[in-house]
Design a protein that fits this description.
Strand order of the largest sheet of chain A: 3-4-7-8-9-10-15-16
CATH class of the largest domain in chain B: Alpha Beta
CATH topology of the largest domain in chain B: Rossmann fold
Structural class of chain A: alpha/beta
CATH architecture of chain A: Alpha-Beta Barrel
Oligomer: heterodimer
Number of strands of chain B: 18
Number of strands of chain A: 16
Shape of chain A: globular
Structural class of chain B: alpha/beta
Number of domains of chain B: 2
Number of helices of chain A: 10
Order of helices and strands of chain B: EEEEEEHEEHEHEEHEHEEEEHEE
Largest sheet of chain A: 8 strands, parallel, barrel
Order of helices and strands of chain A: EEEHEEEHEHEHEHEEEEEHEHEHHH
Strand order of the largest sheet of chain B: 4-3-7-1-2-6-5
CATH architecture of the largest domain in chain B: 3-Layer(aba) Sandwich
CATH topology of chain A: TIM Barrel
CATH class of chain A: Alpha Beta
Chain lengths: ~300, ~270
Amino acid sequence: MNLATKISSLSLSNPTMLASGILGVTRGSLKYAMENGAAACVIKSISLEERTGHHAPNMITFEGGMLNAVGYSNPGVKEAKKEFINLKELPGPVIASIVGKDAEEFAAMAEELLPGEFSAVEMVLSCPHTPGYGTMAGQSSPDITEKITQAVRAKTDLPLFVKLSPDSPGIGQVAKAAEAGGADAITAGNTMGPGMILDVITGQPILDFKMGGVSGAALRPIMVRCIYDIYKSVSIPIIGCGGVINGRDAVEMMMVGASAVQVGTAIHYRGIEVFNKITKEIEDILEQRGDSSIKDIIGFTHKLEE
Amino acid sequence: MENIFKNIEQPISLPIKRVVQENANVKTFYFATSLKSKPGQFVIMWLPRIDEKPFSIAFDEAGELGLSVAKVGHFTEKLFALKDGDLVGIRGPYGTHFSLKNDFKKILLVGGGYGVAPLATLAEEAMKKNIDIDFCNGARSKNFLLFQERLKKLKANVYTTTDDGTAGEVGTVVDTASKLMAENKYDSVYTCGPELMEKKIVGLSHDHHTACQVSIERYMKCGFGICGQCTIDSSGQRMCLEGPIVPGDFALAQEEFGRFHRGASGKKISF
C-alpha cells in the first residue's frame, strides 16, 4: 500500500501531520510526534515579539472536542530561531507557522524566521481568539488574505500554506484569494467560533479569555464541507485539519479534497501514538475499498459528481 | 476504538472546607472530595478571572482532599485571602506518580521546601506496607519546614536540616542524604524540591546504583498533554503526562534537567 502523499513540493511518508498549536513549542516535542508517526510537524505559531498569551484556563474539553484560547504565547522570532535548530536532522519536514498584525509584519516574519531550517511555511489568518490577529483583525476576508499572502510570497520560495477560518462566509472565495496571492496550498483550517463554556456553579466562563476556538469532533463536519467547497474553487492542494480523530475521519477529509491531514485534539483522546494509529486505520480502509494508493481517494467524492 | 468522551477536562467548583496554616508560608486548603490520586500526582486549581495553576496533592484520604500551597505570587496571594465556604475550581488528578514495590524493605525520601508535600503522602503509603523510611526534610529556616509533626507520627526516621541551623542540623538535605546513602542500602530513593537539589540527589542515587524517582516541575497550561508547554529537552516528553514523576536515569538523560526550564512564552530560563 502506498501511503505517501505530496503537498506542493513537500513529500510526506504518510498523510498525518502535527497541527500547529498542539505541542510544537519545542524542537523536542516535534521529534517526539515524529517518533510516533507524524510525517511532518507544524510548529506552534511565532510572532515578531515574545508573547505570554492569555491567562489560564486556556484549554478545556467538552463532549464534542476542545475549547482553547492560548493567545499565541510564543518566545518571539529571535528566541524561536534558537529553539528550532538542526531541523533537517529530524525524520520528517518541519513547517514554520507565522502570525502577524498586518502584511508588513507577516513579511518581516517570513524574512527573519524562514531562511535555513524550515521546509515550508504556514501563515495563519484565522485565529478566533487573539485581539489584533486572525479573524479578530479581519485577516480572513478575501482582500486581506490576498494582500498578506502576496507579502509573504515576495519574501520566500518555500512552499507556502495559508490557514483559513471555517467561519469565513464563502470560504472558496477566500481560498481563491490565497491562490491568487501565490499560496502553494490551503490549510483548512483553524478552530471555529469562538465558543463559550461556563462553570454553572459560579456562572463564570471557564476560559480566562471567556471565549475560545472550538476544535475536535464538533468541528469536523463543518470542516469537511469547507474542504469540499475549497476543492471546487482552487487547483492548489488542501491540507485538512479539524477534528480528525481516526482513520475514517482522515479518509473522509481526503475524499472531499485534502491531500494530507493535520491532527491535534485527537492526541488527548488517543495519546501521542495517534499518528501511527490513524495511518494504520487509513491503510485498513483503503484495503477494504480495494485502493492501492492514497492518491486514489484524494478528491474521490468529486469524481463521483463528474 | 477508545471512548472519546471518557475525560471532560473542566474544573469543578468546590467550597473550601477548612484552611490550616502549616508554616510561615504554607497553608493547606481542604475540600470534601476524594480524587483517588496517587502520591506525586497534581491537580490544577482555578480562581475565576484570576488564573489557574498546578499544585501537588498533599492529602487525599477519608473523603478529604488537601492541597498545601506556598504563597509565591499573584495567584497564591488571592488564594490565601479565601476562607471556609469560598469556591475554588479543581481538575485532576494529573500526571504520573511515585511507586513502591511490594518487596521493598527500606527507602529514602528527600524533600526540600514545599517539595515535602507529595513525599509525605508517599511516606504514608510506604508505612502501610511496613517499609522502613528515612526522610530528609530540609528548608531554609525552622519556620519554613513542612509536615514535621505529620512525619513524626509515621515513625519515619526524620533527618532535619535548615540553612540557618534554627532546626535540625545546619546544611541541606543533600548533606544528610549523601551520608545516609553511604551508610545504608535503599531499595529506592524519592526526591522532590528545588531542581538543583533534585539533580544532586538523582546523581548520588546513580552513583550508588540505587533506583530513584524524581518530580520534575515545568510551566504548564492544559495539564492533559496538548499545549506542549511542559515538554522537556531532550526527549520532548510532557511533564504533565509522562511526568512529573520520572525515573532518575530518565531525568539525567534530559539536556535541560537542572539547567533550564521554559516560561509562559516558551522562552528558556536558566536555573
